[in-house]
Design brief:
Layout: E1 4-7, E2 10-13, H1 14-50, H2 57-68, H3 74-98, E3 103-107, H4 113-121, E4 126-130, H5 133-141, E5 147-154, E6 158-159, H6 161-169, E7 173-181, E8 185-188, E9 199-202, H7 204-209, H8 211-217, E10 220-223, H9 227-237, E11 242-246, H10 248-253, E12 257-260, E13 270-277, E14 289-296, H11 302-312, E15 316-324, E16 332-339, H12 345-357, E17 358-367, E18 371-372
Parallel strand pairs: 3-4, 3-5, 7-18, 9-10, 9-11
Antiparallel strand pairs: 1-2, 5-6, 5-13, 7-13, 8-11, 8-12, 14-16, 14-17, 15-16
Helix pairs in contact: 1-3, 2-3, 11-12
Length: about 375
């Protein structure tokens, strides 16, 4: 008889045979799926404790490529990649549900660039707006929030000194660094034109980024706590002569028109944001970036010695800057952002050597190469 095979007294068609194999495979997949999701719970817990985002594009790509190599049939390998991606999407949704109570502090109001950055890094969180960098930082320190997202540097205007100082003097750790392209816009009330504007309101960093534009138009500049609060104030004043410098999202939020786009002097205007959390700097994860903050002994060549130690152990310093120590005239601390794994044997030897020549030494954070948000 064609079209079937014998199993005892039963004739089983090829379709039924295939279905039995599928059922058996599905049972095994279900067992492994449950096992995987239990591991996802543990991963979510770790991410919550260390203020890490759910989505890691590089990690996802590596896993798919690695697992695809286990498939021996070339014809179905690409389909396995789609299957793996679907499993990961489900895992991300589960993690987002588990972490939906995560509280993220930022400085400013809704629509501020820090708020936009926080939403992109932690799209499932609850956002807590505060009116200063210090208050956002302390909200995490006092366990009112799990983490905060604060700007540390702008590609045009330079470092955000207040945040770097908090990094030096405070107890929180940096768990991630993210770059966000920033487009500054002149925004005003409905019916307003650029020629109507006499005064612009914005955060000092935004004013600095748009200094050339402001001078060309002869605008009077007024500082605000954030670009969002500036837009909010311009909306409340409702005067055509008063505009704000803010993002397009902020303009929409407060019912303002964009009078002119991209008025920042640098076409590649980017702000770097750091995520701060209470989690101590991990000695387990192999990150490829770290931040060192230190003061050196008061002796000839002390700084050169510290810098040479970092280089001698194979670490490239991408950033080296100094800042004054608060309340101690003419004393300075140094900020270093270096490439490499601080937890490697070379890293451990470097830290030991630095501790000898540095008056104080702090590893402020370990993370992977800055992500783009």
């Amino acid at each position: 008889m064609s079209g079937g095979i014998f199993f005892g007294d039963d004739i089983v068609t090829e379709l039924e045979k295939a279905r039995r194999i599928i059922d058996e495979a599905d049972r095994e997949i279900a067992r492994q799926f449950e096992k995987r999701m239990k591991a996802v719970e543990n991963a979510a817990k770790y991410k919550a404790e260390n203020a890490l985002p759910v989505y890691d594009a590089d990690r996802e790509k590596q896993v798919i490529e690695k697992n695809a190599a286990y498939i021996t049939d070339d014809a179905i390998r690409s389909y396995y990649g789609i299957f793996q991606k679907s499993v990961m999407d489900v895992s991300k949704k589960y993690q987002e549900r588990l972490l939906s109570g995560l509280r993220v502090a930022f400085c400013g109001t809704q629509g501020a660039f820090a708020h936009i950055a926080a939403k992109r890094i932690f799209p499932y969180a609850r956002y807590v707006e505060l009116d200063s960098f210090e208050k956002a930082y302390n909200a995490v320190l006092n366990a009112e929030c799990e983490c905060c997202v604060l700007p540390v540097e702008n590609s045009f205007a330079g470092e955000v000194g207040q945040v770097i100082d908090l990094m030096f003097s405070g107890e929180l750790s940096v768990s991630g660094i993210y770059d966000m392209a920033v487009s500054q816009n002149l925004v005003g009330v409905k019916g307003c034109t650029v020629s109507d504007v006499k005064r612009v309101i914005s955060h000092p960093q935004a004013i600095s980024q748009c200094d050339g534009y402001i001078k060309v138009h002869g605008f009077e500049a007024e500082e605000a706590e954030s670009t969002a609060s500036a837009a909010q104030k311009a909306a409340l004043i409702s005067d055509k002569s008063v505009a704000a410098i803010a993002s397009g999202e902020t303009a929409e939020l407060y019912g303002l028109d964009i009078l002119e786009k991209d008025i920042n002097e640098s076409a590649k205007n980017t702000t770097r944001f750091a995520v701060f959390s209470r989690a101590p700097v991990s000695g387990e994860v192999e990150n490829d970036r770290f931040i060192l903050l230190f003061t050196v002994n008061d002796e000839v060549g002390a700084l050169a010695k510290a810098v040479n130690i970092i280089g001698a152990h194979g670490f490239n310093m991408r950033v080296l800057r100094s800042r004054p120590v608060k309340n101690i005239p003419w004393q300075y601390y140094f900020y270093v952002e270096a490439v490499g794994n601080k937890n490697s044997e070379d890293g451990k030897r470097m830290i030991n050597a630095l501790s000898v020549c540095c008056e104080s030494l702090k590893v402020a954070g370990c993370f992977n190469a800055p992500g783009v948000i």
